[in-house]
Amino acid sequence: MALDCVVIGSGIIGSFTALALHERGLRVAVVDRGGLAPGTSRSSDGNLLSSDKSPGLMLALSERSLSLWGRFARDYGNHCEYDPKGATVVARGTGEAEALAAHVAAHREAGVDCRFIDDGWLAYEPHLGPDTSAIGYWPADAQVQPMLACYQIARLLQEGGVPYRFYRDVTALEPGPDAVAVTLEGGERLEAGHVVLATGVWTNELLEPLGRSVPVRPRKGHIAVLERGDVQVNSKIADFGYQATAEDTSGDESTVQTAAIIESTRSGTILCGSSREFSGFDRRVDHHTLSRVLADCIAIVPDLARLRVLRAYTGLRPFPADGLPILGPVDDQGRVVVATGHEGAGQGLAPVTAELVAEMIAKGETRPFDGALHPERFRQ
Question: Cα 314 to chain center, whole Å?
Fold first, then answer.
């Protein structure tokens, strides 16, 4: 099978990357050993946020990606619960209010549509607690159901003739001067000009036989699902402290960080997060951590206390050493491209990641933003 690219990984990053390559007329195949989107995309809450980014490259990427999410829904239809419902960031106390006001001002200076509200916030979110001192509001932030997005893209691509190979391990990855050979369990061999590893926290499994690696570690997070009730949640509600945990790059393995982020789903349930911890590939729910997450959320929206927890689950974020995604070739021939290291922003950054990776393969532009995302930045 003559191909331009094999995308390994069918989660939100791999799905959008395959779509972007297909849109550019390239011949693509998608491979995933676990079926469609079996990893982190299956265990996430669908945040599409700029509100939690500090001004700089990550904010610029998020803003571009939010516009691409809107274009995706317009061009292909909204079959993935894409909802630009906005995000509300909550400050409690004078100190947090002042810091939030500065954060909003910095975003506005960067051209982001957002506003600081120090009175009348119950018109935005009627169940905020009495110790709320101010809110920031980002109307363009959004939510999506990641699995539905992956399903939607898979249908589009399969209708366009893109083959999928599921439930078979990659047993060999052999980059050469003219192509990369991908051998699947059972012996099938695919040859393509490039391979994209959209494999999240599992990327180094595929790179190890090549003598390569990228500094990505699994960072576990918990989510609780609350029953339907009379607690109205209009937007993404986040504690102002959520930004600090999302952007933390200390790599401290001794602590579990928690901060509230709350959202309703199309079905009426409410998702409560979040936590961040390094525990390897252990995906077991820790009830002490889950209790901390729920306490954080109830502190922001006290009426959540009267809702029952239906279930809880965890996912593994691909944590990069410097807080930026890792996008670019890792082999000497420039044919094996990694797309990982998005931490908790994979859903939000999937379309812009796909755009950048597709340009790398179609045009050879492997060092956007002066190489700030390229894997070689970690080489000594």
Answer: 14
